[in-house]
Amino acid sequence: MSDRDEARVGRVRRALAEARVDAVVCALPANVLLLSGYWPVIGSACAIVTRDGAVAVIAPSDERALAVRGWASTFLTFEAGSLRELTTVVDAIRAPLAEAGHALGLEGARLGYEGGAWYEPATYASMFLYGEAMHTLLERCFAPSSLVPFDDTLSRLRSVKTDAEVTRIAAACRVAERAFVHGAPRLCAGLKETEAASLIRAPLSDAAVGREGIERADGFVYCMSGANSALAHGAYARSRATTLAAGTFVLVHCNSYADGFWTDITRTYYLGEPNAIGRRMYEAVFAAHSAALDAIRPGVRAADVDRAAREVLASHGFGGVFKHSTGHGVGFAAIDHNARPRLHPASDEVLEPGMVFNVEPAIYIDGYGGVRHCDMVAVTADGHHVLTPFHARLEELIVG
Hints:
The protein is of the alpha/beta class. It has helices spanning 6-19, 29-36, 64-67, 89-103, 132-142, 151-159, 163-183, 193-206, 276-295, 302-315, 394-397; strands at 23-26, 46-50, 55-60, 74-78, 110-113, 146-149, 217-225, 249-258, 261-262, 265-271, 356-359, 362-365, 369-372, 375-380, 383-386, 398-399. The chain contains eleven helices and 16 strands.
């Protein structure tokens, strides 16, 4: 069992008390990680935290070695498959879930649960999601007095990380840094975008697992070059068979993970010496990035950070080609534009110590190319800390 994150358990307990809820039950892997320190593989595990701070995990037996690394005080397993009969995960978990509820005294309790839509980073090639079946399970196993959608509270809990969680996110960022430092110098004209992405993706796993206590690490990397780099703002970002050419941008986007904690990082390289327009784009993005960082500290409105970056890009003549918000929460999620805090023009959120998010000012010129510089940033008691301080100057981004 890992050391219990008392700060996290304490925050969950306070949230339960404020909502007048006796316990919360979660099955989405990111929320199980939040509540118990254990990151499930296929999404069939559940975690329970009670108002008095008891933590229970119900996990498939073949994930036992991972589950015991968390801090649950009650731990039960189930067999998701059987050679004697055909069964489902919902059927298999029902008895141990009821047993856990009985051990925690939750029959007839008021329970919080995941009731809405979520972005959930994939933990495996195929994931099990309970959906409406969880509502039915809780009714049958606990006979609760009421079931309370807890999504907004969980979102708020995920938005402010504990010191231990920031430490683990920083480790995930170091994994990504090693991958970029290894792969970027190998970018050159003639590679396909898919090949370029592979140069940076491979080290996310093979150079990470076994270091700093990390057991599971990998991620997703996409490369978009030339005119394709102007398309990187969409949800359809992808590597193509396009060949990298000299004198063009090579935008590399990475969402990597280390034991359930995610990164969101982008670097835009240039093959050869940038031309005049390329230098202007880099200068504007770096200036906007610096302005956003200068604005980050506790008590600042998230919208003001977005405005700081947006105004600088406009002053450089690129106001109309910054096509997304300046950032969003990262850590328990990879890409979730609704993850708090949202550095968005319409956001009403205020920055707090422990918030971790990306800062990603960008310029996208259709038919020509795009530049995005996306860092991971943690809010500290007196300012901020950049968790990804590598390849941060133009000279470091010129390759090939």
